[in-house]
Amino acid sequence: MRLLTHNFLRSNVKGTENGYPLIIEVTTVRCEESPVDKEFLLGLIPKVDYSALRSAVRHMGPHCDPPLPDLPEVLPSAVGDVPSLDDATISILHRVLFDVYLVEGYLVCPDTGRKFPVKDGIPNMILHEDEI
Amino acid sequence: MSDLTGISRDSELNGKAHSSGCQEQASDFSSLSMKNFSRYGNIPIVETLESDISLDAKMTAGRWGGGISRNDEINSNPRRSSSSSSSSSSSSSTTTTTTKRMSRPELTGHASLFYDAREAKKYDSSSRMVGIQREITERAIELLKLDGRGTVDGHGRGSFRPSLVLDVGCGSGLSGQVLEEHGHVWLGCDVSRDMLNVANERMEHKREEAAAASHDNGGGSDDEDDEFDDDDDQDADDDPSMPDENNGTRRRRRPSPPTGDLLHHDMGTGLPFRPATFDACISISALQWLCYSNTRDQFPKKRLMRFFSSLYVVLRRGARAVLQFYPETAEHAILISECAARVGFAGGIVVDYPNSTKAKKHYLTTKGGVCVADDVDPRRAGGKSAGGKRGEKAPRKRKGVGKTKEWILHKKETQRKKGKDTRMDTKYTGRKRPTRF
């Protein structure tokens, strides 16, 4: 599971108010490399919840090889429709969003504490009928 | 070309039964207009004929080997035939029957139980199913209308821009692969873990391939590519007229790492995403599973409503969703489209190959907020224009009102015209009875 996916995921167990962001409990992490698509990334950034991404990076960072750098506090002019970013920031963001995978671990709902296991990189978000 | 062998076998079986019928149909429809409009519930339906499908018709004809087999083959719910080992005999017997007679895996139980490891492997390795899935996905992407013309991103840019697409019921990732070829980033969810494992393996494979290619400087990558997934590459090479060649070919030539991600999830429990996340949603042959209840505490309508309401929230404003499904009966199609309409989706069902029992494909094409189908004429779609407000009911007529003297006279007149025995009109006609009764 990518951090991009994590950024969009929320828990919808019965009794959650917000269910976002899911807390990451890391067991295994994998890093890949992929070509940067600047255009797409810039279009994506307004949709990404930056503070959730930062906290996810803080959870995942130490497990990566090499460790992920901390993201800047705030993105420069992130409020506008197309943020103006320098190439270094873009490549960091790309690496964080697309190239870091959570392979084994858990996603924990912040409200209810329900644990969603992640196995082979696929999070299991299946709910029982009484959890809806 | 391995899929052609399977097809020609089937078309031999079906060809005799169908050859005369097809020609008749063809001549019938040539005189009709291209589109027929009818209604399913509140949702307009667009029926397209073969020639109307702008997935290059020639390519289709070439691939499916002529008019007769085209009608028979594109078709048949691959998931259906997958369950019957004797698919050739069943397909020949079903040419004259309705879809109801076909075996439906939906009736056998939960999707995750049906698509076990064996079935998933079989599903993914059958080149016929791969072909059908690809065909449907191409059509769905076409219906999404989200290439670089700025129709979706709203910026009006001429350049191509990938979209973030949600694939509901992605299965073994066949549809995701097509999305990748079109250059989109996708997120698939499915209820069957075994199908997801197959998808995961494939993506793993692609990743290794991409890594190897980048190390080898991309020189011999083409050959490797062909070795690994020859089915898909054949398909891709067969149609030079694929949309967005620039991006598509570039991506295909040099194996790029997969752009998808997977999620194990049951769509009937509502999609677990933040609001306004996705640019589009597709679903290939999955929605009909929601029409069945596999356990006692599952109610199809409830699950459909949950799915659609969460889908509405998850999609960006104005984003489209194209959901292809195989309704067992007309009621299922109505149920699905009504649930979509109630949630606030506008749009309709596009039916491809409406005159074939097997090739018929239903695509629920919806858009949040505004009327989606530029090609659906709201007048002909039947009264309620798409985009009707939620919960707005026509005022109910009160009983008894309306039976005025004119109404009675008119009614008597029509009865008389029909030759029925009717009392003559007098000054007492339409008067109230005295109250002493």
TrEMBL record, chain A:
Top-level taxon in the UniProt lineage: Eukaryota
InterPro entries, alphabetized: Trm112, Trm112-like
Recorded family membership: Belongs to the TRM112 family.
PANTHER family: MULTIFUNCTIONAL METHYLTRANSFERASE SUBUNIT TRM112-LIKE PROTEIN, UPF0315 PROTEIN-RELATED
Protein name: tRNA methyltransferase 112 homolog
Organism whose genome encodes this protein: Cyclostephanos tholiformis
TrEMBL record, chain B:
GO BP terms: methylation
Residue stretches spanning the membrane: none
Protein's UniProt name: 18S rRNA (guanine-N(7))-methyltransferase
Superkingdom of this protein's organism: Eukaryota
CDD domains registered for this protein in UniProt: AdoMet_MTases (cd02440)
Acidic residues bias spans: 221-242
Coiled-coil regions listed in the entry: none
Listed Pfam families: Methyltransf_25, WBS_methylT
Compositional bias annotation for Low complexity: 81-99
Domain 18S rRNA (guanine(1575)-N(7))-methyltransferase Bud23 C-terminal: residue ranges: 393-434
Chain intervals for the UniProt region annotation (Disordered): 1-28, 61-111, 204-267, 379-437
GO molecular function, one term: methyltransferase activity
Biological source species: Cyclostephanos tholiformis
Biased composition (Basic and acidic residues): 403-412
Domain Methyltransferase: 165-208
UniProt keyword terms in alphabetical order: Methyltransferase, S-adenosyl-L-methionine, Transferase
Keyword Transferase: yes
